[in-house]
Amino acid sequence: MADVFIVGVGIHPFGRTDGLSGLQQGAYAARAAMADAGVDWSDIQFGFGGSDASGNADTIVNELGLTGLPFINVKNGCATGGSAMIGAWQGIASGQYDIGIALGFDKHPRGAFNAMPADYSLPDWYGSVGLMVTTQFFAMKLQRYMAQHGITSQSLGRVSEKAFDNAVHADHAWRRAPVDIDTILNAAMINDPLTKYMFCSPAEGGVALILASEKKARELGRADVRVKAAAIRTRPPGSFEVFAPGLDVVRGGAPTLLASAAAYEMAGVGPEDIDVAQLQDTESGAEIMHMAENGFCADGAQEEWLAEGWTRIDGRLPVNTDGGCLACGEPIGASGLRQVYENVIQLRGHGGGRQVPGNPKTAYTHVYGAPGISGVTILQR
Question: Distance between CA atoms of 151 and 276, rounded to whole angstroms?
């Protein structure tokens, strides 16, 4: 497989934008990414893109131009954006194309996602007992993990406090005001043990990446951020994931364990080589569990990591440097690409007040979605 570079990135701010559809926010991001790369829409040879609730991504050609390029729609839950990027990466790594776009956008209404059991091959009773309400499922899964590994509510609060602190410095974040840990812990309980500041919200936004071959990247003067690995995996036997129909007596693996192992092998690096990471944090407990599943610490060691501030901007491994889903919200189609966008900004040294010190060279993203799918990318400068 040939080397692939990210030569342009663009984002439409997350949150609420009255007057613009999700598709239009995606087009905004695409134009920003092309301007960043120094190319025009007519230069783009192919595209992968997706949204969960804002229509087919291929209709972006109505906004950007009818050039006849092949464009593949992607719909893969919360991993939609990450899956679009993997498709674009494969198109260039295979040698078929020199330059393409990965695009994600969405515009969700206020309130919780309204997932239906039949869409996930589940019986109607699964929804009748409340398990399609993701906040309830995540809280239930987290309760089990906390009991098994000694995770405290204080650690959940520290994750959220860090997210809001980091987002103060991210122009594209939705929640850009700090929230202290006492306010977080004493806020309204949504699903025990998670208070309202420990959940992300359905949101709006768009992100686009321009990917290119090494030859094209050098022509553009953008051969600085290389995709070292991109992997996606579904759930193995014995996993316990969102919208899973049951829980085995013996705990099995997890899609994140498989995706991270595949990505590390592909990149030829290990967790100890990562300088900055963006991890799926649909709720604060998810970030904690994903720290271990991605190999950054042992189960239960998160207590020490968070108490010592090792995941803060100036810590041992900065995590979710733009505030993650907790502060940015989650437009499903765009969320995974936001993580990659943030890592490109960090590797370029353009993070401003949220820039990771020490000239980071290797960056990691992890996205997770229903019904148990994970995507991991590793970038290197």
Answer: 23
Distance CA 282, CA 320 (A): 12
335 close to 367: Cβ distance less than 8 angstroms: yes
How far is 141 from 17, CA to CA, in rounded Å? 33
Q: What is the pTM of this model?
A: 0.95
Residue-wise pLDDT tens digits, 177-207:
999 999 999 999 999 999 999 999 999 999 9
Q: Per the structure block, which two tokens stand in for 60?
A: 């972006």
